Amino acid sequence: MAARIGIFSVFVAVLLSISAFSSAQDLQIVNAERRIDLSSHIVKAFLTLKVENIGKDPAAEMLLAFPPTQIKNLAMVQALAITGKKKKKTYLPLDVKPTEQPDAPNDTGYYRVTFISPLGPGETVSLEVLYILTHSLEPFPVEITQSESQLVYYHDSAVILSPYHVKQQTTFIKTPSTRVESFTSIEPANRAGKEIKYGPYENRASYSYTPVIIHFENNSPFAVVEELVREIEISHWGSLQITENYRLTHGGARHKGVFSRVDYQSKRSVSGASSFNALLAVLPPRVNSVYYRDEIGNISTSHLRTGFRKSELEFEPRYPLFGGWSATFIIGYRVPLEDYLFEASDGRRYLNFTFGCPLVETIVNKLTIKVVLPEGSKDPSAVLPFTVNQELQVKYSYLDIVGRTVVVLQKDNVVPTHNVPFQVYYTFKPIYMLAEPFMLVSAFFLVFVASLAYVHIDLNIVRK
Ligand SMILES: *[C@@H]1O[C@H](CO)[C@@H](O)[C@H](O)[C@H]1NC(C)=O
Ligand SMILES: *[C@@H]1O[C@H](CO)[C@@H](O)[C@H](O)[C@H]1NC(C)=O
Ligand SMILES: *[C@@H]1O[C@H](CO)[C@@H](O)[C@H](O)[C@H]1NC(C)=O
Predict the structure, then answer these.
(1) Angle at CA 180, nearest 5°, toward 177 and 185?
(2) 352-398 tens-digit pLDDT
(3) Least enclosed by CB within 10 Å: which of 149, 171, 422, 456?
(4) Which residue has the CA at smallest separation from atom 9 of ligand 3?
(5) Where are the transmembrane segments (predicted)?
(6) Ligand 3, atom 12: nearest CA belongs to which residue?
């Protein structure tokens, strides 16, 4: 019997793999438009695809392919299905997951996009895909002086890498300025102002790849946080305390030669064009007790604007950051608990806070978020729209009896699109709220008894 089930499941598995394989082959891309935005150091690519099922069976999903050099720097892939025409267009988010294919040519990496409903034979669907690449602009020259502008290389393919035949496609690449030193020309290709256009190209076979290199000026701040640890402490006594530890680096061309502060301050437009000294953090509305300090102490060069929907903290490190330089600092603030802590319908409590990094247009190589729950919290579980590493720790602070549960969320390669709400659910018995006052009372009582005893002993000594 067991053997029969075994054979049967092998048979099913074979069937499934055949159908998955055939669906991968039986799609074609009728039309593709790709817009790659190179204006900051975070590369954003928008793909509009019209996909047709040219097979005999319904297709439930499609594959997006990426060359190995991009797969390792891919921070996010999102897809939307477009339904309706012109003005009545609606966008529905689709499930997108990294996946592997057994016979991937040239180490191609894949993401699987699941359609809302299977695409019938002869049917088409329009999709919008956004993908974001980090660390994909390579400074060249690798070292520049204070007076030089920063030039970088961007490598890609003039045609979209795809496991499907692409009937027609065009790619537009936007550069931050009109200074483009060179770009590979694949006919038809042309450049006008800040835009380079590749295509239209007709009928490219699956896995077509035509490497191109673009060499251009990019002086946008290459703000890379090598490591960010955000601690979010929930106190049932009314506030959420957030403490953020940053190690920030300028990820652009390395600075060479001496740094002249005089040049930097007097000729700001030409001197240190690629450096940055002002940072902007977007903090929650109703933020209070904001501080900004480093290992030396408090830094006063910061301005806070609180608003109805968000607050903005503008601040400056002690020195401007040039390529390869780094700065470590801490930002701390409080927000009212009632804005972020709620009760779910099942009686559990939950924190609803923003993931990611508050600094604008910043890449975080390694992000750790520690949610410190109140003492006595149980069964924590985190809900996020993408995968992160999770673990539990215990933190002890003064007056804690059993310690506090800390939910640790860790993710690499984080970009601003990861700044979305996440939740941490937990159960909590209000009786534990009495634990701290109880400890305080007991402490006072102990001190009282001790001093009484002391006085008593003292008196005894006096009597003798
Ligand atoms: C793999 O890469 C080689 C060299 O870059 C290229 O000639 C070949 O066509 C590629 N194969 C496929 C299936 O893309
Ligand atoms: C730094 O600023 C914080 C908050 O404003 C304040 O509580 C603290 O005393 C300051 N520390 C020093 C060393 O000035
Ligand atoms: C979390 O907060 C966001 C707005 O900040 C809201 O849109 C979302 O519905 C909230 N999620 C839950 C589960 O409460």
Answers:
(1) 135
(2) 999 999 999 999 999 999 999 998 899 999 999 999 999 999 988 77
(3) 456
(4) 421
(5) 438-457
(6) 352
